[in-house]
Structure prediction request, 660 residues.
Amino acid sequence: MRNTSFKGQIREKIADSNLQSALDANVERRMQGRAVALASVPDWAERRQRAHTIRAIVIASLDFYLDKFIAQVERNGIIIHRAKDAAEAVRIVLEIASLAGAQHNSSLLFAKSKSMVSEEIELNHALETNGHRVIETDLGEYIIQLRHERPSHIITPAVHLHRADVGKLFHDKLGIPYTEDIPTLTNTARKILREIFLTADIGISGVNFGVAETGTFTLVTNEGNGRMVTTLPPVHIALMGMERLVPTLDDLALFLSLLPRSATGQKLSVYTSLIQRPLEDQQRHLVIVDNGRSTLRNSALREALYCIRCGACLNACPVFRELGGHAYRGTDGAIAPYPGPIGSVISPGLMGENFAQLAQASSLCGACKEACPVDIDLPKMLLRIRAGEMPMESGKKKDGLGLPRVLKLALGGFARLAAHPRLFAVSQKIAGWFSRPLPRFLALPAATGWGYSKDFPKPVRPFRERFSGIRQQRAERPASPQPSPGLETIQPLGPGKLSLAEQFTSELTALGGQVIPCTENELGSKVGAFLHQRKVHSACADTESARLLQTALPETLLLPYPDTTTQVGITFSPLGYAPAGSVLVSGADQAALTASLLPEIHIVLLRAADLRDELTPLLRLAAQAPASAIVTGPSRTADIEMTLTIGVHGPRELVVFLLN
Prediction:
């Protein structure tokens, strides 16, 4: 029988060599990618502080921003629901499902994109209990759903698994021949989940940010499943924590420069979806969830609500890097929905004392604070939980949450001693005298809590007594030599500034995309040559692309809407973002959304004059359409062993014809 206690899980995870190698690989690649991504932002520290200030303002005035956001969302034609707790959120989703299924009186198929709020409220279990079928469509989430597990990481749910684990799982559950080839495993999931997207009754997604100014809500993904579940099903339900707001689109641009870099080491995620209104013949619902956030906001842990769920603190934390997410458990053995440093604050903050012991799973080294893109002081909040400064069901403060009774008594005695300076100084001297014959570190009994996993340093001479000697040594030390004048290192000048077209081409090519420069007169012949070379017999195009290509391509080739056999989708992009190699797919023409999503190859027509060096113009134009997406490269995933695989749910290729 497995030991589900917190300490039992710690022992088990540390002894699991398979888990340790998987976690090591994740950390190494995540940290390297993040370092490279941050190097491209010279004003990272300033952006970080601006983001912290914005989050502080929003949380302090949350009622104001929520009212403004809700009013805008309702004007946009989206149905708003407020849920005070998990039970009400689940009830709302079930009621929406009941209305959607009333016509055919049967269980419904839910296609679900990644949503930590859904994990928090245990939505999947509730839907399945009521006879519905729920399929996770993020590759990592799909893998752990087949294993009947919770996510092990906020960003990479299957971080604890190797390719062999996934190969055996797909062989056992999906009936394919055993393989450890990651592209084959990914393609298997793509084929199975494509049918789910096309036949789902309801799509469920999370929300990364809501914009109070416009009522826009944003979803950031890499695989394309987020776009699928918000575009194809006739009903879309978005789940949003009530704190996930930014005031304006300018603020959204700031946070989009921080989130992908911290989460996955990208300048922008492949798909930044901006949802404004329902599509034609579609119903959209937004469920805004409290579930303890109001209480948390009025506590000493309110700064936890600044979190943007990037997972950077998990990758930086030396404790998480040894344990993984499944070791973070409550006193009842339940796995915390949010692991790592931020989870050790949010889980007890939202769900109570059951998870308070997680605050002890920290060395307080400060790596999490340093990694956080919004500068959340996680060590301070972990100490506050340990001191009992968190929302309590009883309303009474409890010190030393998660500590053994013996250690609580010892710390209480130390606190009383330390409150009297003279008594503390005398006790230091006495302890120093008696400890002289002892070894440098003392092994204490496991029952003390400290002795379970750490040695206790022996008492030494008080610092006050040693300080005078240290000061004398420093006075006698010779001065350090100063560098000779005129020998400062001269930094070489970098290359000349690239044009926006050159920058766009460089960035998109690095992501695996292709840029083909041409004039408008050459466009038809070059697109035709590309399609002929690829032996394309079916393509679809949005209205503007069809107009630009109508004289060059046969009418029988271009369809208005893709089907399962369509090989190529062609869309016109009104704006591009050069610093990330991104193009805007505007849902002002709804055909552009599906043409850019379902086929294997996505061709984009973009004028070089429409390239921008700032993201905000793209966001403002996107907010004018029912739904839009900023696309940055072909769809991709690294959910299996952190191995990059191109082509998951969205197109495998992105080809931009750049019109000069």
